[in-house]
Amino acid sequence: MVTECLSSAMLSTTAEYALRITVFLAEQPDRFYTATDIAARTRVPGGYLYKVIQSLVRGGLLSSQRGQNGGVKLRATADSITLYDVVHTVTPFQRICSCPLELAEHKFALCALHKALDDGYALLEQRLRGITVSQLLQDRENVHFPEAAAGEIAG
């Protein structure tokens, strides 16, 4: 059997982008980055980037500052932010609590299929709760973002 590999297939594109942004900002947590800086390094499309950043600011994970030295940065420390926090902020986890087909015979218990799917969601949720952003940064060889082109990032 051949398994096809997708980029973050179990997570939405929005969650993937939010994770990239958060990990990138955690590399220099005291520095404010502009959206242009972040887009260049994380390869998150500019229009989408604003939506994700707004969600992360509203969710309390990022702080923003206007003005010449403005931008966004992490609000909390990387060791206090889990991957679950980031994903749940932009695309809240939804568990299967009742039969999606609304079948009467499944009113009080999920069928085997939906129970197995919900168990999978629970495992993913549990795993993401157990990984902090700082843990990802400990393996610096495997967490890096492409260098920006000359003049692309100021400051």
Task: Using brief descriptors, characterize the structure shown.
disordered C terminus, two-stranded antiparallel ribbon, mainly alpha, 155 residues, Arc Repressor Mutant, subunit A
Walk me through the topology.
Layout: H1 13-27, H2 35-42, H3 46-58, E1 62-65, E2 71-74, H4 83-90, H5 112-129, H6 133-137
Antiparallel strand pairs: 1-2
How would you sum up this structure in a few lines?
It is built from six helices and two strands; from the N terminus they run αααββααα. It is mainly alpha-helical.
CATH hierarchy: architecture: Orthogonal Bundle
CATH superfamily: Winged helix-like DNA-binding domain superfamily/Winged helix DNA-binding domain
Q: Please, what is the average pLDDT?
A: 84
Q: Helicity, in percent?
A: 40-55%
Classify the fold: give the CATH topology.
Answer: Arc Repressor Mutant, subunit A
pLDDT under 50 segments (min length 5)?
150-155
The main sheet comes to:
2 strands, antiparallel
The beta-strand count equals: 2
How many H/I helical runs?
6
Fraction of residues in β-strands: 5-15%
CATH class: Mainly Alpha
Write out the strand line-up for the largest beta sheet, numbering strands in chain order: 1-2
Q: How many structural units, i.e. domains?
A: 1
Structural class, from secondary structure content?
mainly alpha
Describe the structure.
This protein has 155 residues and is mainly alpha-helical. The chain has a single domain (13-142), classed as Arc Repressor Mutant, subunit A (Orthogonal Bundle). The chain is 43% helix and 5% strand. The chain contains 6 helices and 2 strands; from the N terminus they run αααββααα. Strands 1-2 form a two-stranded antiparallel ribbon. Strand 1 and strand 2 (71-74) form a beta hairpin. Helix 1 (13-27) crosses helix 3 and helix 1 crosses helix 4. The radius of gyration is 18 Å and the shape is elongated. Residues 150-155 have low confidence and may be disordered.
